[in-house]
C-alpha cells in the first residue's frame, strides 16, 4: 500500500506539472480549477481501474527520461533533414517500404514509448502493434533499417526500465 501512495503522489505531481506546462494558464482561477478537476479525475480513474503501479508512473527516474527525450529530439532533427533532402531531390527517390520490427520490451510502457517514438520520427509510422513486434511504414529502405530500430529500442529500455532487456 505504501508504494501505491508514493506512485499516486508522483503521478499527481506529473499530471499537475504537465497540465500547467501545456495549458499555460497560471493565473485564471476557473481554469486552474478545471485543471485540478482533470488531475483528480485522471488519478481517481487510475486508482479505480487498478492501474496504479510502477508502470503507470514512469517518472521514478526522471533523469533517464530527460536523456531519452534529448536523444529522441536529436533523432527527430536528423530524420527531418533526411526527409527534406529526399523530397527535394529532382528524381524524388522515395520508395515506401513496410517492415516488421521485432520488439523485446517486457512492459507496456516501454512498448508504447517505442511505438510512439517510431511515429514521432519523420519518415516512419507505426502502423500496427502486435505481441511480438510492430508493422512500420517507412518512406525509404534506409529509414527501415532494423539496426536503427534496435538502437531506438535500447534507448527506450534504458529510459523506461533501466536497460533490462528481455
From TrEMBL:
Keywords: Cell membrane, Membrane, Transmembrane, Transmembrane helix. GO terms for cellular component: plasma membrane. It is found in: Cell membrane. InterPro entries: Cation_antiport_E (IPR002758). It is a multi-pass membrane protein. Belongs to the CPA3 antiporters (TC 2.A.63) subunit E family. The keyword Transmembrane helix applies. GO terms for molecular function: monoatomic cation transmembrane transporter activity. Pfam families: MNHE (PF01899). The chain crosses the membrane at residues 7-26, 32-51. Its main location: membrane. The keyword Ribonucleoprotein does not apply. This is Cation:proton antiporter. It comes from the Bacteria.
Amino acid at each position: 500500500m505504501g508504494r501505491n501512495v508514493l506512485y499516486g503522489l508522483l503521478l499527481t505531481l506529473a499530471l499537475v506539472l504537465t497540465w500547467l506546462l501545456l495549458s499555460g494558464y497560471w493565473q485564471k482561477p476557473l481554469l486552474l480549477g478545471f485543471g485540478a478537476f482533470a488531475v483528480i479525475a485522471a488519478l481517481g480513474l487510475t486508482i479505480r481501474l487498478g492501474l496504479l503501479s510502477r508502470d503507470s508512473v514512469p517518472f521514478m527516474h526522471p533523469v533517464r527520461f530527460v536523456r531519452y527525450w534529448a536523444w529522441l529530439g536529436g533523432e527527430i532533427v536528423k530524420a527531418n533533414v533526411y526527409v527534406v533532402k529526399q523530397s527535394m531531390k529532382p528524381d524524388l527517390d522515395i520508395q515506401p517500404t513496410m517492415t516488421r520490427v521485432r520488439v523485446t520490451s517486457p512492459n507496456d510502457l516501454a512498448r508504447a514509448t517505442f511505438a510512439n517514438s517510431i511515429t514521432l520520427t519523420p519518415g516512419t509510422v507505426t502502423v500496427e502493434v502486435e505481441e511480438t513486434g510492430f508493422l512500420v511504414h517507412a518512406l525509404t529502405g534506409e529509414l527501415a533499417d532494423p539496426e536503427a530500430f534496435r538502437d531506438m529500442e535500447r534507448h527506450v529500455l534504458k529510459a523506461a526500465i533501466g536497460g533490462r532487456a528481455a
